[in-house]
Prior knowledge:
The chain is α/β, with parallel strands linked by helices. The protein has 17 helices and 36 strands.
Amino acid sequence: MHIIRPITAACQGDGENVAPCPLRPKIASSKQQRTARSDQLLEGEKKLGNYSIGFDVGGTFTDTYCIDEYGEVITTKTLTTPDDITEGVITGIKQLELLGYDDVGFISHASTQACNAVITYEGAKTAIITTVGFKDQIEIRRGQRVPVEPNDMYNLQANLPQGYIGALNPLIERPFRYEINERIGPDGRIIKPLDEGGVKDVIADMKKNGIESVAICYVNCFANPDHELRTERLIKELAPEIEVSVSSQILPIIREYERLGTAVVNAYIKPLMKTYLHKLQKRINDIGIKQTLHIMQSNGGIVSAQVAGEFPVNILESGPASGVIAVAKMGARQGIKNVIAFDMGGTTAKCCAIVNGIPQITKEFWINNQYLVCVPIINLVEIGAGGGSIAWVDRGKALQVGPQSAGASPGPACYGFGGEDPSITDCNLILGYLNPDYFLGGQMKIDTDKAKTALKEKVCSRFGDLPLADAALGVHNLANVKMMAAIRQATLQKGFDPREFTLVATGGAGPAHVCRMAQELEIPEVIIPRNPGTYSAVGLLIADAQYSSTRSYQTTTKTVDLNKFIGIYDELKAIAREPLHGLNYTDDEIELRYTLAMRYSGQSHEIDVVLDGEVKTAEDMQRAEEKFHSEHQRLFGHHAQNDVIQIITLSITGVGKAKVGGEKKAEKGAFGKKTERFATRKVFFEEYSDYVDCPIYRRHYLVEGDEFDGPAVIEERHSATVVPPGCSVRVNQYHAMQIKIGKA
């Protein structure tokens, strides 16, 4: 059973209680029914942990997903409240109508607030403390130059264009980049002692200038963190109100800019995120939920809110990561190893390749093409194509879609909130893919006439009164082209053939586009999970707890000091386990995963090699060498068997398996495999070059074993799936729709 709660407190009633269908029994979904079922448990059998809640805060909506001890699901979708995000969260939780908040045994959260704070420059007033001569490293970076004019390549005074890697709006103004006399060698030896008097002078100046947060990053501190830790102690003694981010605790690896840039971003958002997470934890506790709040990290693992507040750089892509984890777990549950996770929301579309059940991970992430952070992040390709993306015509009379978005306010023209620009949502409405009377389950009315007016005035008129259907189809197809390019980037450019994957579509807008994209990419199967519009929140409940520790140690596989190697491993194990101990995992419950960053001597960049276990012996190191050769061959088509192999960085990830069970399997249908349409309406399909009578199905009436062919539209409260001619749909035992893709 799946229960959906209304979008606003004023909209009461059962989300499944829509127009009656003669072929499906009415689905009961009341609070009273859950009370009766709960009363059937023996005394003492009902224990804390009956409910698990995940909530994903997006730019427009906050999605809440709850699973009870029976594996049944309740979802709500409430408006995000940007003035106080916690207000929308609490509203969504209350609309779940639980039997009791003390029965919540697990609660987890995802948000892009941290990343948005960097993009919009809403972080703290931040300073840097670094080694003499390195204060401008944050702007020099790797020395890239992107000139405005060709002859500016060697003009040191040239202004660089915004939006390119070579341009920068520094998060920290130059007067607040402080230098300290000290020096540590690459081997960890102290060459010049720390000038503690200089540190005290800097602290006094920071207090005078109202600095709220500081990043400490000394040269070669990865080899010896002593100077950084002593500086941290002085700041905490003399200015405890200033938040401190220590680079050797955040990213103890070689390369100064990467370590500094990551520490700076952490410092910039730390006060904001600590305050927000503390307030959110308090508000959750105040309504009766006593559990520790968990947070999704960018790498797809869960940590406590306390750990996330200290290291917020690890939760920059928290929201998108949650959706990928949900898809990866769904694929594993259904026996599908290679999956493309595709999410299309209101503003952006995102995709990620999941290979052998594991999402692709990157350790370099540019925020807004400006700020580099080097922490493990699920390797998403993201573009400006969402339901709110605006269609427009450029000066060369070429049709464009996005990246500008109508957002939530004023929103697409059809919302009737004052928007005058046509969006993808408007075009999908004109094509008949969306039902104006069942948008958000009928709780929000959308206006087809307003959509037609916007498209006619802003697009059709630029092409000599182009027919509305042709213009709408052009916008729809152009959006598909952009999103297919993103899928190719996530697969083909990384050596994977998309034809060997299953495409899983989530987000409110994704299911309306995904079948056409699969046809063009020759992907044989598409899966639409249940509740695709709120599916990102599912990942918050079924994700493993996870924490990574890293340390650079430069050596070669032939000259490595194994005793030192094992000693570093022991330190990293303790660091990786500690946050999981705080989530009540024992050492026996924590799986340790080992990775070495390796390269051939003379190469400038290394590749990560996942090991079978800890390296303790020469034989273990030989197996690591063989794995490196194999991975180099896979990535680049060649390897050098006799070349010297360098080890650059050791990493250990501690993993605690998720303790929350998934939703139960769907009930089998009582009506065999004959699925009756809910209604019929005119829908435009390219195969017919016209509107045709198209069967319309309601998703919550479908049960396991139901089958039907396209063309069809399947409506549900937060999404609509468009099935073109030549494709066929089958509902599997998990209530997911498996769509076999025919040729376009």
